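I am still getting used to backbone structure tokens and would like to learn alongside you. Would you supply a protein for us yourself, any chain you care to pick? Start from the sequence, derive the backbone structure tokens from it, and show both lines together. Go ahead whenever you are ready, and we will take it from there.
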Amino acid sequence: MEAVVVDAGTKLLKAGFAIPDQAPSMIIPTRMKRMPEGGSLDDISLSEDNTIDPIVRGFVRDWEAIEDLLHYVLYTGLGWEIGNEGQILFTDPLSTPKANREQLVQLMFETFNISGFYASEQAVLSLYAVGRISGCTVDIGHGKIDIASVIEGAVQHIASRRFEVGGIDLTKLLARELAKVNPHVKLNISDVEKIKEHYSCCAEDEVAYVKTQRSCQKEQHILPDGQVITIGRERYTIGEALFQPSILGLESHGIVEQLVRSVSTVSSENHRQLLENTVLCGGTSSMAGFEDRFQKEANLCSSAIRPSLVKAPEYMPENLTTYSAWMGGAILAKVVFPQNQHITKADYDEYGPSIVHRKCF
């Protein structure tokens, strides 16, 4: 049986058997509904009060919920049989606390009785997905942005940055902007999320963005409850916030400048191999026009060596940016498990959860 790869994000969980040239067989919401005691599915309302987010800003916050979610994924979704569990590889977000890594490996061996475990950082895996072992990743997830530098398969933490802002903050920004021009329409955040995914885009540059704010074609969108809203320049504000964080009320540099500043902290001899092998990943990076705007801003930056984006190989599935860490995990699983580089049950029994820091790096 192939090893399972799990990439659990703030918004979506990607899981499937390690088949590197295929998309993950399961891409499901991480958010869960709270089941009333003794109740049925019919009793669950769609209100936000009944939801649980087991992962917040990339890190597990509710371990009971994540256990339930993984039980569903592994046994119902992927067909594991109790008593015949296989091997599993997890992706780690940048700067995952040591305690979280230990709790995950403990959960997998003691509750799920797996035969083998491995974990690797998402930045490394996203580079593997495009055939690189060195480079930079700009991962714009639902709950956070990770900018990481990787040299020979190892994250350079001194040259990496984590920002607790992501797609959810862009959704909230869009909700505020839409409310200004549609004051009589009641919007819920899930509807705004869908509007963002459908309409949001990046202007070609800052000058073009300013033009959209003066004059922009408007469209009407019908909400599920039949209400009609108007969408115009707001669609461009979402993408622009990544290049001008002041739109979000943040006093920080735009995403390209953050990348260049991060890389500047490592030896100059590594700057070229890092910046010229930059990979965009995370669901928000698939926004229309974002890649072109990123490269245009990169070409204008003050750095002597400018960031250059790496394209995914043609044989890889479409929309690789949304699950590149999972894909890299599928590639790595084909190496670490056959070569016995993973944590075995015997390793765990002898050394306990702390073994994860010695064998998974």
About this structure: Residues 63-77 form the longest helix (15 residues). Residues 125 and 332 are 8 Å apart (CA to CA). The mean pLDDT is 94.
